[in-house]
């Protein structure tokens, strides 16, 4: 490549230039919850494999998943699952060409952010 003098120009787009928007933050959170649920699913698979392997392996896996840390991970997994589900419904609405203007898109974002903890709480109350 030719030696181009690029000067001291900032990279574009730069994080300090743009204000974070609710729709972009909820999109990033959807990706994070998807990856976090993968880790939770691997823990559950480990628990099943340990149960099939031996009593000692099961006791170790069960001890981890029923500890305070395991309870926290599984509770956050339920929260992530509800958030990811609501965000998926939001994308289905958008795929149908509905609620694409900014005020409605932000309402859907807030519905995901508020609905996920509410549905998580209801899940823990009724299950």
Q: Which sequence of SSEs, written as H and E, runs from N to C? A: HHHH
Q: Whole-Å distance between the termini?
A: 62 Å
**Count of discrete structural domains:** 1
Number of helices: 4
Q: Determine Rg (CA atoms, Å).
A: 21 Å
Shape annotation: flat
CATH class category label: Mainly Alpha
Q: Count all strands and give the number.
A: 0
Helix content percent band: over 70%
CATH architecture: Up-down Bundle
Strand content: under 5%
Structural class: mainly alpha
The whole-number mean of residue pLDDT values reads 91
Q: Classify the fold: give the CATH topology.
A: 3 helical TM bundles of succinate and fumarate reductases
Q: What is the name of the CATH superfamily?
A: Fumarate reductase/succinate dehydrogenase, transmembrane subunit
- Poorly predicted runs are none
Main beta-sheet strand count, sense and barrel state: none
Q: What's the assembly state of these chains?
A: single chain
Structural summary, described in words:
The protein has 127 residues and is an all-alpha fold. The chain has a single domain, classed as Fumarate reductase/succinate dehydrogenase, transmembrane subunit (3 helical TM bundles of succinate and fumarate reductases, Up-down Bundle), CATH 1.20.1300.10. Helices cover 76% and strands 0% of the residues. The longest helix is centred in the first third of the chain and has 32 residues, at 22-53. The radius of gyration is 21 Å and the shape is flat. The termini are far apart.
